[in-house]
Amino acid sequence: MAEFTGRDLHLVKKALSIALLAIERRPGPFQSASDQSDMKALLDDLIENDTELAHYARAARIAVTGEPD
């Protein structure tokens, strides 16, 4: 598996957070449960604590909805 550090790691975390939110917002047959599950597991491995998770969840909401909360 590739190892990411610094800005590359930040971008991977942010991209996974955005992708997860986008999948969650897409109901029905286009919501890939296996992709969602794998992405959540990968993000859980990369995120260090709940504060960091909240930061990336907020960044994802801003990117997907244009609203911070």
TrEMBL record:
Domain of life, per lineage: Bacteria
The protein's name in its UniProt record: Uncharacterized protein
Species name: Sphingosinicella soli
